[in-house]
């Protein structure tokens, strides 16, 4: 039985608004105490690049990390750089926690991004590409092919490529064409053989075709030719009677951030659809060109695209290494060893291998699942599918932030609605870059009879919640799931996340009220086992951190552990600084951005910051407070950023089962251990990789060890 008086200790719903910190404590903190968030993000992407450079990792995985780096950087420009530029142009204040002028911030971003893109290109040309060739997977140039190879490729070009190419001339009768964002293009200079006049043409490399063309080999070796090389060596077929003088690849990045001015009187979906249409024509913010492009062509592109020299990135080819995602090669020896998620012990089939009763399992006690080490399909998906079919289930309520239209989660909600159950889906259609998909399957849900709502005006609904109401013996019982990750079966295989299932009545009441408020009006702040943004999550965390500070001053053991994707919020960081000054031991495990400076004497010498990257994307959020021996531990969806704490609906749930508390504690111990491979953040903002011990041996891989630990726990419980 859970004592809710104990759960509420230290949070105090009624007096949240009265909670404030002594202003004298703020004065004890130095002025320049934050790292620049944009440069910190670029440092995160450098850590991704370091994985691609790591010779101990399988080769195709290194190629995949190169593609991830490229995709990440695209999004950084489309959103963060675009947002900074938009604010400068419109005269809005640029949010920065380091007190620098916007132009200076953009200049620093440009310098660092140029450096990283050159390093990225070198990692491919000098490291990964040669190593792949040595392993029998060669990305070749057209010049290296013999006549037989070229003849075979010409047949492919004529049959599969030529028909979909669309060369666009630029002359007095043809204005400079629209260049779509992230498209790969060829800038071509040609001369009219009859008039001698030079002309310019643009040719888009078709994105629907494989980026790397298979070059058949008699000895069975794997060879691939970049599609743009195949096209550029057959330009004469596209411009008969013209002399092709020169050609160069280029690629444009546009502002693709969506800004919807929400008005309660307007249709949000229609406003968003209009904004998505505008996104395609956002202003250019980055021009990538091959390093051999001549000045005449570059000057034309700069003039026509209205872009500055600072926004030009001259790189060795090939451009757009996202194409490495397309290298889907059946070479298990060049990939990570496959890992098959295990089914959580609570949801294991019975002795007769019959399908488990998920609700009966949850009634026995809270269930904590850890994806992708433990299966999403046999836990979250099974929970919703059983709810859809169970005649005793009366209602299902769920938030959906990112999922796929063919998702079994969506199908389960549709099945439930068609079976006559009350089904509420709170769809966040403003989830960045998933807006169009979310609109499509939101309409699909509506057509099936699901009650679809879009949250509150001005707030994104980011929390990961599912609530099932079941009739049992004439009494309604709540079954709840609170997670750290999206209800997406595809990403659940590569995103590391936790999810808590519980039949606790208090959590059920909390979720019932929260869902009612999300589908209705204001957010209620009086929850018992949840911390909910935007009204009281920030203050709840500040109160818990400050309690650790006061315990340390009183000579009691005090510790704070936080695992997030991003640590940016100044109030949270300052609270951690004050706690460190009081002697609290603080450990921060962050995947991406971190504006906190650890290890600064007199301010943060008791703070350690670690980052772990690997085959899985670290995505869970954990908040752990020692609380004088009575641990207060939460998991949920919130990062320590302004948007999460102030402009989103987020939810953390308190974990109470002793076995679950130990599991989370052990997980943190492993990550923060000096014997585990990780990046360490220094006070100067530099991240240093620690993956080799003093004996020259590789340190423990946290994700590999977690796989082993989950399997070991399962075996141990099976023996019992």
What's the short version?
Its EC number is 2.7.4.1. This protein is α/β, with parallel strands linked by helices.
Task: Tell me about this structure.
The chain has 720 residues and is α/β, with parallel strands linked by helices. It folds into three domains: 8-36 and 531-719, Endonuclease Chain A (Endonuclease, Chain A, 2-Layer Sandwich); 132-334, 2-Layer Sandwich (polyphosphate kinase like); 345-526, 2-Layer Sandwich (Endonuclease, Chain A). It has 19 helices and 27 strands. Strands 14, 18, 19, 20, 21, 23, 24, 25, 26 and 27 form a ten-stranded mixed β-sheet that branches. Strands 10, 11, 12, 13, 15, 16, 17 and 22 form an eight-stranded mixed β-sheet that branches. The chain has a six-stranded mixed β-sheet with strand order 2-4-3-7-8-9, with helices on both faces. Strand 15 and strand 16 form a beta hairpin. The two termini are 24 Å apart. Residues 1-18 and 260-266 have low confidence and may be disordered.
For this entry, give a set of tags.
720 residues; alpha/beta; Endonuclease, Chain A; polyphosphate kinase like; 10-stranded mixed beta sheet; 19 helices; 36% helix; PP_kinase_middle; phosphoprotein; magnesium; metal-binding; Polyphosphate kinase
Q: What integer is the average pLDDT?
A: 88
CATH class of the largest domain: Alpha Beta
Question: Biggest β-sheet, characterized?
Answer: 10 strands, mixed
First-residue to last-residue Cα separation: 24 Å
Please report the number of helical segments: 19
Specify the overall morphology: globular
């Amino acid at each position: 039985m859970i004592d809710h008086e104990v759960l509420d200790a230290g949070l105090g719903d009624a007096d949240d608004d009265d909670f404030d910190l002594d202003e004298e404590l703020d004065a004890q903190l130095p002025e320049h105490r934050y790292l620049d968030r944009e440069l910190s993000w670029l440092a995160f992407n450098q850590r991704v690049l370091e994985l691609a450079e790591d010779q101990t990792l399988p080769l195709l995985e290194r190629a995949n990390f190169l593609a991830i780096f490229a995709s990440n950087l695209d999004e950084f420009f489309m959103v963060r750089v675009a947002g900074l530029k938009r604010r400068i142009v419109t005269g809005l204040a640029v949010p920065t926690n380091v007190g620098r002028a916007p132009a200076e911030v953009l200049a620093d971003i440009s310098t660092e991004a140029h450096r990283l893109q050159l390093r990225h290109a070198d990692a491919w040309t000098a490291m990964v590409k040669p190593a792949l060739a040595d392993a029998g997977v060669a990305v070749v140039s057209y010049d290296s092919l013999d006549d037989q190879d070229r003849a075979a490729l010409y047949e492919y070009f004529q049959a599969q490529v030529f028909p979909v190419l669309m060369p666009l001339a630029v002359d007095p009768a043809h204005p400079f064409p629209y260049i779509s964002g992230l498209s790969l293009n060829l800038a071509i200079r040609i001369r009219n053989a009859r008039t001698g006049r030079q002309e310019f043409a643009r040719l888009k490399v078709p994105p629907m075709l494989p980026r790397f063309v298979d070059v058949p080999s008699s000895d069975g070796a794997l060879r691939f030719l970049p599609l743009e090389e195949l096209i550029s060596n057959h330009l004469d077929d596209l411009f008969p009677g013209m002399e092709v003088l020169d050609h160069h690849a280029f690629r444009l990045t546009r502002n693709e951030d969506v800004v919807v001015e929400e008005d309660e009187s307007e249709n949000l979906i229609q406003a968003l659809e209009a904004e998505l249409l505008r996104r395609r024509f956002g202003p250019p913010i980055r021009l990538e060109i091959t390093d051999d492009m001549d000045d005449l062509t570059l000057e034309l592109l700069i003039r026509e695209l209205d872009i500055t020299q600072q926004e030009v990135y001259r790189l060795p080819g090939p451009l757009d290494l996202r194409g490495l995602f397309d290298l889907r090669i059946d070479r298990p020896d060049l990939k990570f060893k496959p890992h098959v998620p295990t089914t959580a012990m609570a949801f294991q089939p019975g002795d007769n291998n019959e399908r488990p009763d998920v609700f009966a399992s949850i009634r026995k006690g809270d269930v904590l699942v850890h994806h992708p080490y433990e299966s999403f399909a046999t836990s979250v998906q099974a929970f919703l599918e059983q709810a859809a079919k169970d005649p005793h289930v009366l209602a299902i309520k769920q938030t959906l932030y990112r999922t796929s239209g063919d998702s079994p989660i969506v199908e389960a909600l549709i099945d439930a609605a068609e079976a006559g159950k009350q089904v509420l889906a709170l769809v966040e259609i403003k989830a960045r870059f998933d807006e169009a998909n979310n609109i499509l399957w939101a309409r699909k849900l509506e057509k099936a009879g699901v009650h679809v709502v879009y949250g509150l005006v001005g707030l994104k609904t980011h929390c990961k919640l599912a609530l099932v109401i079941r009739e049992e013996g004439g009494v309604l019982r709540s079954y709840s799931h609170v997670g750290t990750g999206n209800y997406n079966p595809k990403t659940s295989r590569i995103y590391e996340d936790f999810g808590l299932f519980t039949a606790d009545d208090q959590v059920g009441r909390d979720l019932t009220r929260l869902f009612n408020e999300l589908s209705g009006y204001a957010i209620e702040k009086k929850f018992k086992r949840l911390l909910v943004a935007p009204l009281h999550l920030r203050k709840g965390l500040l109160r818990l951190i400050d309690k650790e500070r006061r315990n340390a001053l009183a000579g009691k053991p005090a510790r704070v552990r936080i695992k997030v994707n991003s640590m940016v919020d100044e109030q949270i960081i300052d609270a951690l600084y004050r706690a460190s000054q009081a002697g609290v031991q603080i450990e921060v495990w962050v995947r991406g951005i971190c504006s906190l400076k650890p290890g600064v004497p007199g301010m943060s010498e008791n703070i350690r910051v670690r980052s772990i990257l690997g085959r899985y994307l670290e995505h869970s959020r954990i908040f752990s407070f020692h609380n004088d021996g009575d641990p207060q531990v939460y998991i949920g969806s919130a990062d320590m950023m302004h948007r999460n704490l102030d402009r989103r609906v987020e939810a953390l749930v308190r974990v109470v089962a002793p076995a679950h508390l130990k599991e989370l504690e052990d997980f943190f111990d492993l990550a923060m251990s000096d014997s585990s491979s990780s990046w360490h953040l220094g006070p100067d903002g530099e991240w240093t990789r620690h993956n080799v011990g003093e004996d020259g041996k590789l340190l423990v891989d946290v994700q590999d060890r977690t796989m082993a630990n989950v399997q070991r726990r399962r075996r141990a419980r099976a023996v019992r």
